[in-house]
Design a protein that fits this description.
- There is one protein chain.
- The protein is mainly alpha-helical.
- The chain has one domain: Rhodopsin 7-helix transmembrane proteins (Rhopdopsin 7-helix transmembrane proteins), CATH 1.20.1070.10.
- 77% of the residues lie in helices and 0% in strands.
- The radius of gyration is 22 Å and the shape is elongated.
- The termini are far apart.
Length: 330
Protein backbone atom coordinates (compact mmCIF):
# COMPACT_ATOMS: atom_id res chain seq x y z
CA UNK A 1 0.00 0.00 0.00
CA UNK A 2 2.87 2.37 0.84
CA UNK A 3 4.46 1.64 -2.54
CA UNK A 4 1.20 2.45 -4.30
CA UNK A 5 0.84 5.73 -2.40
CA UNK A 6 4.40 6.74 -3.25
CA UNK A 7 3.86 5.87 -6.91
CA UNK A 8 0.61 7.85 -6.97
CA UNK A 9 2.36 10.87 -5.44
CA UNK A 10 5.18 10.71 -7.97
CA UNK A 11 2.72 10.38 -10.83
CA UNK A 12 0.74 13.36 -9.60
CA UNK A 13 3.90 15.44 -9.31
CA UNK A 14 4.96 14.40 -12.80
CA UNK A 15 1.53 15.28 -14.17
CA UNK A 16 1.63 18.74 -12.57
CA UNK A 17 5.14 19.46 -13.88
CA UNK A 18 4.16 18.27 -17.35
CA UNK A 19 1.13 20.55 -17.44
CA UNK A 20 2.88 23.66 -16.11
CA UNK A 21 6.10 23.26 -18.11
CA UNK A 22 4.46 22.54 -21.44
CA UNK A 23 1.78 25.21 -21.01
CA UNK A 24 4.65 27.63 -20.52
CA UNK A 25 6.24 26.48 -23.81
CA UNK A 26 2.92 26.80 -25.63
CA UNK A 27 2.44 30.31 -24.25
CA UNK A 28 5.90 31.43 -25.40
CA UNK A 29 5.34 30.20 -28.95
CA UNK A 30 1.78 31.49 -29.28
CA UNK A 31 2.59 34.95 -27.88
CA UNK A 32 5.46 35.66 -30.25
CA UNK A 33 4.72 36.16 -33.95
CA UNK A 34 8.27 35.44 -35.08
CA UNK A 35 8.43 32.21 -33.11
CA UNK A 36 5.10 31.17 -34.61
CA UNK A 37 6.55 31.79 -38.07
CA UNK A 38 9.24 29.14 -37.53
CA UNK A 39 8.09 25.79 -38.85
CA UNK A 40 10.19 23.96 -36.25
CA UNK A 41 8.15 25.61 -33.51
CA UNK A 42 4.90 24.36 -35.07
CA UNK A 43 6.06 20.83 -34.34
CA UNK A 44 7.39 21.78 -30.91
CA UNK A 45 3.97 23.25 -30.11
CA UNK A 46 2.27 20.01 -31.17
CA UNK A 47 4.70 18.04 -29.02
CA UNK A 48 4.03 20.32 -26.05
CA UNK A 49 0.26 19.91 -26.48
CA UNK A 50 0.68 16.12 -26.42
CA UNK A 51 2.72 16.39 -23.21
CA UNK A 52 0.11 18.66 -21.61
CA UNK A 53 -2.55 16.07 -22.41
CA UNK A 54 -0.40 13.33 -20.92
CA UNK A 55 -0.28 15.23 -17.64
CA UNK A 56 -3.90 16.42 -17.67
CA UNK A 57 -5.64 13.33 -19.08
CA UNK A 58 -3.47 10.24 -19.53
CA UNK A 59 -1.78 10.11 -16.11
CA UNK A 60 -5.06 10.64 -14.15
CA UNK A 61 -6.69 7.95 -16.31
CA UNK A 62 -3.79 5.59 -15.60
CA UNK A 63 -4.15 6.20 -11.87
CA UNK A 64 -7.86 5.40 -12.04
CA UNK A 65 -7.32 2.19 -14.00
CA UNK A 66 -4.62 1.11 -11.55
CA UNK A 67 -7.33 1.33 -8.90
CA UNK A 68 -9.59 -0.87 -11.06
CA UNK A 69 -11.87 1.99 -12.13
CA UNK A 70 -14.24 2.24 -13.85
CA UNK A 71 -15.83 -1.11 -12.98
CA UNK A 72 -18.21 -2.86 -15.35
CA UNK A 73 -17.80 -0.31 -18.16
CA UNK A 74 -15.50 -1.93 -20.75
CA UNK A 75 -15.73 0.77 -23.43
CA UNK A 76 -14.94 3.59 -21.01
CA UNK A 77 -12.13 1.54 -19.50
CA UNK A 78 -10.53 0.97 -22.92
CA UNK A 79 -10.94 4.62 -23.87
CA UNK A 80 -9.15 5.74 -20.71
CA UNK A 81 -6.34 3.27 -21.30
CA UNK A 82 -6.00 4.32 -24.95
CA UNK A 83 -5.43 8.00 -24.11
CA UNK A 84 -1.78 7.42 -23.19
CA UNK A 85 -1.27 5.32 -26.33
CA UNK A 86 -2.66 8.14 -28.50
CA UNK A 87 -0.59 10.92 -26.94
CA UNK A 88 2.59 8.84 -26.96
CA UNK A 89 2.15 8.01 -30.62
CA UNK A 90 1.47 11.68 -31.41
CA UNK A 91 4.79 12.50 -29.70
CA UNK A 92 6.61 9.93 -31.83
CA UNK A 93 5.19 11.39 -35.02
CA UNK A 94 5.98 14.91 -33.79
CA UNK A 95 9.60 13.97 -33.16
CA UNK A 96 9.79 12.39 -36.60
CA UNK A 97 8.38 15.54 -38.22
CA UNK A 98 10.99 17.66 -36.40
CA UNK A 99 13.81 15.39 -37.62
CA UNK A 100 12.55 15.57 -41.21
CA UNK A 101 12.20 19.38 -41.01
CA UNK A 102 15.77 19.75 -39.73
CA UNK A 103 17.03 17.36 -42.42
CA UNK A 104 15.40 19.37 -45.20
CA UNK A 105 16.61 22.67 -43.71
CA UNK A 106 20.27 21.64 -43.72
CA UNK A 107 20.56 19.14 -46.57
CA UNK A 108 17.91 20.43 -49.00
CA UNK A 109 17.64 24.20 -48.45
CA UNK A 110 16.35 24.89 -51.97
CA UNK A 111 13.34 22.62 -51.41
CA UNK A 112 12.64 23.95 -47.91
CA UNK A 113 10.08 26.60 -48.84
CA UNK A 114 8.01 24.26 -50.99
CA UNK A 115 8.19 21.26 -48.64
CA UNK A 116 8.05 22.97 -45.25
CA UNK A 117 5.62 25.83 -45.70
CA UNK A 118 3.44 26.75 -42.68
CA UNK A 119 0.43 25.26 -44.48
CA UNK A 120 2.24 21.96 -45.03
CA UNK A 121 3.38 21.86 -41.41
CA UNK A 122 -0.21 22.24 -40.19
CA UNK A 123 -1.28 19.46 -42.57
CA UNK A 124 1.49 17.19 -41.26
CA UNK A 125 0.50 17.88 -37.64
CA UNK A 126 -3.19 17.19 -38.27
CA UNK A 127 -2.37 14.00 -40.19
CA UNK A 128 -0.02 12.85 -37.42
CA UNK A 129 -2.68 13.33 -34.75
CA UNK A 130 -5.30 11.56 -36.86
CA UNK A 131 -3.00 8.58 -37.46
CA UNK A 132 -1.93 8.51 -33.80
CA UNK A 133 -5.59 8.45 -32.75
CA UNK A 134 -6.34 5.50 -35.04
CA UNK A 135 -3.29 3.58 -33.80
CA UNK A 136 -4.03 4.32 -30.15
CA UNK A 137 -7.71 3.37 -30.40
CA UNK A 138 -7.11 -0.08 -31.94
CA UNK A 139 -7.65 -1.80 -28.56
CA UNK A 140 -11.01 -0.04 -28.30
CA UNK A 141 -11.84 -1.33 -31.80
CA UNK A 142 -11.36 -4.94 -30.70
CA UNK A 143 -7.64 -5.69 -30.26
CA UNK A 144 -7.81 -6.47 -26.53
CA UNK A 145 -8.11 -9.34 -24.09
CA UNK A 146 -11.46 -10.54 -22.74
CA UNK A 147 -12.50 -8.43 -19.79
CA UNK A 148 -12.01 -9.92 -16.30
CA UNK A 149 -15.06 -11.47 -14.71
CA UNK A 150 -14.95 -9.00 -11.86
CA UNK A 151 -15.25 -6.12 -14.37
CA UNK A 152 -12.23 -4.25 -13.02
CA UNK A 153 -10.32 -2.01 -15.40
CA UNK A 154 -6.61 -2.85 -15.46
CA UNK A 155 -4.08 -2.16 -18.23
CA UNK A 156 -2.23 -5.50 -18.08
CA UNK A 157 -5.48 -7.49 -17.80
CA UNK A 158 -7.08 -5.78 -20.81
CA UNK A 159 -4.38 -4.82 -23.37
CA UNK A 160 -2.88 -7.57 -25.53
CA UNK A 161 0.90 -7.98 -25.30
CA UNK A 162 0.98 -8.68 -29.04
CA UNK A 163 -0.47 -5.22 -29.69
CA UNK A 164 2.00 -3.56 -27.32
CA UNK A 165 5.09 -5.36 -28.62
CA UNK A 166 4.60 -6.17 -32.31
CA UNK A 167 2.49 -3.20 -33.32
CA UNK A 168 2.82 -0.35 -30.83
CA UNK A 169 6.54 -0.81 -30.08
CA UNK A 170 8.23 -2.50 -33.03
CA UNK A 171 6.16 -1.06 -35.89
CA UNK A 172 4.88 2.29 -34.63
CA UNK A 173 7.70 3.37 -32.31
CA UNK A 174 10.96 1.54 -32.99
CA UNK A 175 10.94 1.99 -36.78
CA UNK A 176 10.28 5.78 -36.59
CA UNK A 177 12.95 6.12 -33.88
CA UNK A 178 15.52 4.32 -36.05
CA UNK A 179 14.59 6.58 -38.97
CA UNK A 180 15.09 9.63 -36.74
CA UNK A 181 18.52 8.44 -35.59
CA UNK A 182 19.58 8.02 -39.23
CA UNK A 183 18.26 11.50 -40.12
CA UNK A 184 20.10 13.17 -37.23
CA UNK A 185 23.26 11.28 -38.15
CA UNK A 186 23.05 12.72 -41.66
CA UNK A 187 22.27 16.19 -40.27
CA UNK A 188 25.32 16.30 -37.99
CA UNK A 189 27.66 14.98 -40.68
CA UNK A 190 26.40 17.48 -43.26
CA UNK A 191 26.49 20.43 -40.84
CA UNK A 192 30.08 19.66 -39.87
CA UNK A 193 31.00 19.23 -43.54
CA UNK A 194 29.55 22.64 -44.37
CA UNK A 195 31.35 24.29 -41.44
CA UNK A 196 34.65 22.75 -42.54
CA UNK A 197 33.99 23.79 -46.13
CA UNK A 198 33.36 27.39 -45.09
CA UNK A 199 36.50 27.44 -42.96
CA UNK A 200 38.61 26.37 -45.94
CA UNK A 201 37.30 29.12 -48.25
CA UNK A 202 39.27 32.26 -48.82
CA UNK A 203 36.36 34.67 -48.88
CA UNK A 204 35.41 37.93 -47.24
CA UNK A 205 36.07 37.55 -43.51
CA UNK A 206 32.74 39.02 -42.39
CA UNK A 207 30.77 36.82 -44.80
CA UNK A 208 32.72 33.75 -43.73
CA UNK A 209 32.27 34.52 -40.03
CA UNK A 210 28.54 35.07 -40.48
CA UNK A 211 28.10 31.83 -42.38
CA UNK A 212 30.02 29.83 -39.80
CA UNK A 213 27.96 31.40 -37.00
CA UNK A 214 24.68 30.48 -38.68
CA UNK A 215 25.81 26.91 -39.34
CA UNK A 216 26.90 26.55 -35.71
CA UNK A 217 23.47 27.79 -34.60
CA UNK A 218 21.73 25.31 -36.87
CA UNK A 219 23.93 22.54 -35.50
CA UNK A 220 23.16 23.58 -31.92
CA UNK A 221 19.41 23.58 -32.65
CA UNK A 222 19.66 20.10 -34.18
CA UNK A 223 21.65 18.93 -31.15
CA UNK A 224 19.00 20.33 -28.79
CA UNK A 225 16.23 18.54 -30.65
CA UNK A 226 18.27 15.34 -30.68
CA UNK A 227 18.50 15.59 -26.87
CA UNK A 228 14.69 15.70 -26.80
CA UNK A 229 14.62 12.53 -28.93
CA UNK A 230 17.28 10.85 -26.78
CA UNK A 231 15.30 11.67 -23.64
CA UNK A 232 12.19 10.11 -25.17
CA UNK A 233 14.11 6.90 -25.95
CA UNK A 234 15.62 6.67 -22.45
CA UNK A 235 12.26 7.23 -20.76
CA UNK A 236 10.19 4.83 -22.84
CA UNK A 237 12.60 2.02 -23.74
CA UNK A 238 12.69 0.35 -20.26
CA UNK A 239 8.90 -0.02 -20.19
CA UNK A 240 8.81 -1.52 -23.68
CA UNK A 241 11.62 -3.92 -22.74
CA UNK A 242 9.48 -5.15 -19.85
CA UNK A 243 6.51 -5.57 -22.23
CA UNK A 244 8.70 -7.68 -24.52
CA UNK A 245 9.83 -9.74 -21.54
CA UNK A 246 6.20 -10.37 -20.53
CA UNK A 247 5.37 -11.58 -24.04
CA UNK A 248 8.43 -13.72 -24.76
CA UNK A 249 9.05 -14.97 -21.21
CA UNK A 250 5.73 -15.16 -19.34
CA UNK A 251 7.30 -17.16 -16.50
CA UNK A 252 10.06 -14.63 -15.85
CA UNK A 253 9.51 -12.81 -12.53
CA UNK A 254 9.22 -9.02 -12.83
CA UNK A 255 9.17 -7.16 -9.49
CA UNK A 256 6.26 -4.75 -9.06
CA UNK A 257 8.54 -1.88 -7.96
CA UNK A 258 10.45 -2.23 -11.23
CA UNK A 259 7.24 -2.07 -13.25
CA UNK A 260 6.09 1.02 -11.35
CA UNK A 261 9.49 2.68 -11.81
CA UNK A 262 9.43 2.18 -15.59
CA UNK A 263 5.86 3.48 -15.81
CA UNK A 264 6.72 6.63 -13.82
CA UNK A 265 9.85 7.10 -15.96
CA UNK A 266 7.78 6.97 -19.15
CA UNK A 267 5.39 9.57 -17.73
CA UNK A 268 8.31 11.76 -16.65
CA UNK A 269 9.31 12.23 -20.28
CA UNK A 270 6.47 14.72 -20.68
CA UNK A 271 8.04 16.93 -17.99
CA UNK A 272 11.58 16.77 -19.39
CA UNK A 273 11.14 18.55 -22.72
CA UNK A 274 10.46 22.07 -21.32
CA UNK A 275 13.66 21.79 -19.27
CA UNK A 276 15.63 20.97 -22.42
CA UNK A 277 14.09 23.90 -24.30
CA UNK A 278 14.87 26.38 -21.52
CA UNK A 279 18.47 25.29 -21.04
CA UNK A 280 19.34 24.68 -24.70
CA UNK A 281 17.34 27.28 -26.71
CA UNK A 282 18.00 30.96 -26.15
CA UNK A 283 14.50 32.18 -27.06
CA UNK A 284 12.86 29.92 -24.46
CA UNK A 285 15.53 30.70 -21.88
CA UNK A 286 15.03 34.45 -22.32
CA UNK A 287 11.26 34.04 -21.94
CA UNK A 288 11.77 31.93 -18.81
CA UNK A 289 13.96 34.64 -17.23
CA UNK A 290 11.52 37.35 -18.29
CA UNK A 291 8.59 35.46 -16.76
CA UNK A 292 10.29 35.30 -13.36
CA UNK A 293 11.40 38.93 -13.53
CA UNK A 294 7.75 39.96 -14.05
CA UNK A 295 8.54 41.39 -17.48
CA UNK A 296 8.05 40.17 -20.98
CA UNK A 297 10.45 41.87 -23.33
CA UNK A 298 10.67 40.97 -27.02
CA UNK A 299 12.84 37.91 -27.35
CA UNK A 300 16.23 38.30 -29.06
CA UNK A 301 15.31 35.44 -31.34
CA UNK A 302 12.32 37.41 -32.51
CA UNK A 303 14.03 40.60 -33.55
CA UNK A 304 13.44 41.62 -37.16
CA UNK A 305 15.86 40.14 -39.59
CA UNK A 306 16.78 37.00 -37.76
CA UNK A 307 14.07 35.00 -39.43
CA UNK A 308 12.59 36.08 -42.72
CA UNK A 309 8.86 36.46 -43.00
CA UNK A 310 8.94 34.01 -45.89
CA UNK A 311 9.66 31.17 -43.46
CA UNK A 312 13.27 30.55 -44.45
CA UNK A 313 15.66 29.61 -41.69
CA UNK A 314 18.97 31.49 -41.44
CA UNK A 315 20.90 28.66 -43.09
CA UNK A 316 18.40 28.53 -45.95
CA UNK A 317 18.70 32.26 -46.62
CA UNK A 318 22.47 32.17 -46.32
CA UNK A 319 22.72 29.14 -48.58
CA UNK A 320 20.58 30.79 -51.23
CA UNK A 321 22.61 33.99 -51.02
CA UNK A 322 25.90 32.17 -51.31
CA UNK A 323 24.74 30.18 -54.30
CA UNK A 324 24.03 33.44 -56.12
CA UNK A 325 27.22 35.17 -55.03
CA UNK A 326 30.60 35.12 -56.70
CA UNK A 327 32.30 32.92 -54.12
CA UNK A 328 35.10 30.71 -55.46
CA UNK A 329 34.00 27.25 -56.42
CA UNK A 330 30.43 28.31 -57.23
Amino acid sequence: ALLSLQAAARRSTTALLSILGNLFICTIILRDRKLRAMVTNHFLLSLAVADVLVGAVAIPCAQMTDAGLPQGRPSLCLLMICTLLIFTQASVFGLLAIAVERYISILKPFQYLSLMSPQNSVLVILSSWALATIIGLLPLMGWHKPFPADGECNFDAVIEETYLVYFNFLACMLLPLLAMLILYGRIFLEAKRQIRKVAEREVDVSRQARRRLVLHKELRLAASLFIVLFGFILCWLPLHILNCLKLFCPACPIPDPLVLATIILSHANSAINPVVYVFRMRSFRQAFVAAFSCTWHPLPASTPGRFSTSGLTPSNRLELASRNSSLPGK
